[in-house]
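Reading a protein record of the kind used here takes only a little practice. The record below shows the convention in full:
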Amino acid sequence: MQGKRLVLDSDGSVRVESYAVPQPAADQVLVRVYITHVSAGSEINAIRARRQSGSHNFPQAGLGYTAVGEIAAVGAEVRDWQVGERVLCGGNHGSHWLVTPRLADAPAAVPQQFMLQRLPDDLDDVSAAFCVLGDIALHGIRRARIQLGESVAVHGLGVIGLLSVQLARLSGAHPVIGVDLVDARLQLARDLGASHAVDLRGPDGALGDGVAEIRAITASPWRFRGALPGLEPDGGADVQIHTTSYIGNYPALLKAAADRGRIVLVGATAGSVAIESHELLRRELQILGSYETGLGEPHPYWPWSRARNRAVIWDLIRRGELQVQPLVSHVVPPKQAPDLYEQMLAGGEGWLGVFFDWRAL
């Protein structure tokens, strides 16, 4: 049986190739994939890395980690899964994906090898697929430990950023500030509940850092006085969620933070940048990573496993409290993937949530 999948070549270009679909081993499940969801941060970083490094370890499949489909075949030893069940899996962009469910108990296993979850009947495929990026956004919000009335600034209004805006609002934050440089994304943030939007591009087109705007929006007579010189007005965001792949704005996040503010780094950010240690020390700031390491199962110190987070996202979508359809910009056949990746590499204009539809193959 022939299938199709996306391949990243050694020069960083993306193409569609045919391949022989393997039959499941005795302990495996074969999923016939309907749609896959692009995770723009990690995928664009991978393409850029290939183009910059000149790696010759490709072609190989590997882009993507969110797929929705139907179980097409099960191995002889599989008892918990049935042909015809509609499922979420960690598949790369392709028409089929092999899952080995028993690897869920293996500490060293890659989640994509074993992630398999039944889908709610009352959610369409595209809406259901948002649970994976929704899980990433929700974990960042949980790491931030937002309290009612705290101010939150979300830097980067891609899919994870716009989900974070909504989840911050649902957590009781105010003001909720969306920060980006694309007009359409800033407007969508307002439509989805952001109280303020900060455009990093000034009237002359020059790129700013948003520090003064964030501090002005969050200024309050109730705040402690004594901010560092040069950071007037006396404000700052209690929480900042960083959801972009751009690392160069980290120093600005420190300056835009309230005293004892928290900065949560969510998503695929690569590289390094110098920061001033006195900002962290004198203002008692916290920088928190968010990668969901080791959260396949809940434990006493962190009960929110990835599967539990996905279920929360599905529930919020079904109740109409988390809006995902406005985040969908493309549901297209895989043959359009090369052009779409070039568009994504060029910047944030004209796209948002991108899905590839494998059903016609």
Summary: The domain at 133-290 is CATH 3.40.50.720 (Rossmann fold). The chain has two domains: 2-119+324-357, 133-290. The CA atoms of residues 107 and 264 lie 26 Å apart. The longest helix spans residues 125-144.
